Structure formats: C-alpha cells, structure tokens
Amino acid sequence: MTRIFWDYTVAFYLFSAGVSAGALIVAIVADLIGKGRYAHIVRMGAWVAPVPVTLGTLALVFDLERPYYFWRLMISLEPTSVMSIGAWILLFFTFASVIFVYPYLPERYDILKIRQKTSQISSTKAFRIISLILAMSTALYTGVLLNLLVARPLWNTPLLPLIFLFSAIIDGIAAILIMLYVIRHKSLGQDEFMSSRKFLERFDLLFLVPFIVSVAGMMAWLYLSGGHGAKALSIITGGSFAITFWLGVVIIGMLVPLAYDLRMMSGRHGQEETEGNKRLIALSVASSVLIGGFLLRYVLLYAGQLTGPIIN
Known about the structure:
Blueprint: H1 8-34, H2 39-48, H3 50-63, H4 82-101, H5 115-122, H6 125-147, H7 160-187, H8 190-225, H9 227-237, H10 242-266, H11 275-305
Helix pairs in contact: 1-2, 1-3, 1-6, 1-7, 1-11, 2-4, 2-7, 4-6, 6-7, 7-8, 7-11, 8-9, 8-10, 9-10, 10-11
C-alpha cells in the first residue's frame, strides 16, 4: 500500500499560499494600471494577502515531526534546494504582505507606530514591483517543487507551475470579490463597486481561460506520454479521485465560474434579478472557485503520491 507522506495539511498550505499570492498580485496590478481607480481592490487584496499564507505556514510547521526546528530553514540557504529557496521566498513574501497591508489597517491597530513609515515604503513603485515578483514566485514555486520530483509522473509535467500560478490568481480574485461583497454596503458607493467588480471579472476571465487550457494541456501531456503518465492520469479521471476531480475541480472550480464570467461579460445577466440574488450568486461563484482551488491541490498532491515513484 502506497504511503501518503504529504496529507491535507500540505494541500491546505499549497492552497492558502496561492490565495495570498494571488490576492497580492491582483492588488498590485490593479494599483499599477488603475492609477487610483481601483483603490478598494487594492485595499481588499492587502487585507487578504497576509492571512491565508500565515495560517497555512503555521499548519505546515505544526504538522512537522519536529516543528521547533523549522527556524533552521530560515538561517540557512541551499542554492540547490528548491525547498530551501522556497522557504526564503515565503519568508520575504509574508514580510512584504505585512508591510503592504499595514497602511490599510485602522489607525487604532498601529501599535508599533510605524504606519507612516510603512505607507512610504509600500507606496513606492520599487516595493510594489518587488512584492509582485515575490507573490508570483510564491505561486509558482510550489508547482516547481512538485514538478522537480521527476519520479512522480503526475507532477512531472511542464505545465504544473503555470497551473499553480493561474489557479492562485483566480483564487485571489475570488477572495477579494468576497471581501468586496461583504463590506459593500459599509464603505463602497454603487459606481465604485461596479467599477471594481467589472475589473475583477475581466481579470478573472483573463486567467481562468489559460488555467483551464493548462489543465487540459497537462491531461493531454500525460495521456500522450503513455505508460506511467497515462496511468497517473487514469487515477484522477477514472480512479479513486474521479468524482473529486470532475465534480469539484472541473465543474465547481472551472465551468461554474467560467459560465458566470461569460454571462456577466455578455451583459445578459438578469436585470430583473434583485440585488440580494445577484450578491448571493456572486458569493456562491467566488466560493466555488476557492473550493475548486483547494480540491485541485488536494487531488494533485494525493494522486501524485499514488502514482510513483518510478524507478529505472
């Protein structure tokens, strides 16, 4: 019986790091190209970014056999180790996300009295570019880490890092959209809300389509490679993970948000729908994206461990 070394805790970490990275990517891009028009997206992205990655990292640390030795990764750097490089990327990304969010926190939370200083730092273009690179690196490196384990055929596909990156961005968009809907009646005007929502929908479609194409490409790669690759694919498409993959990842995580985005972009969404119904549908679709994002990592992580190692 194949033993699972990386369980749901690792899957949660991969997912939470992706949500944080995606939220910061969206916030920074909205700030750079919006020039103040999408200030609420920037604020919501800033609020989201530090939280999931912190929770995921803590879960990962406490899942270790000796969690009190985790700090050793933070005082050494092994240039040849993706895990060591990833730990440092994660550290700097988390640090950057905290600096990014600090100016957006209520003034009463400025316990350290560094609000003005962090505001000056986070508002510079150089900081935002560096943070964008760190966020993209965080989203990519988990896919790279799995991809380099060549003995696992499900992971050894060139599209895996891109799948993780695209998934992280659409997960971050979903988290920001939920935040916008939750606080809409408290601080957003109608025009501001509509502008922010349309930006998120267009940005989501921009990455959702490549995400779906990348997953389809990964499946085609595995199928055409035959042998171990085809066997690995059969586990997620027709084996023990088939229902989770087709229902959770494909239908809930891909097709539902795709249908919603296309409907909203077409302008054919029901004008007769009440505001409450529109809000409920949007929150449901955003939640389905997050569910699909977690299940994607869950399926790939577990199924990947059941399809190897290949020993030549």
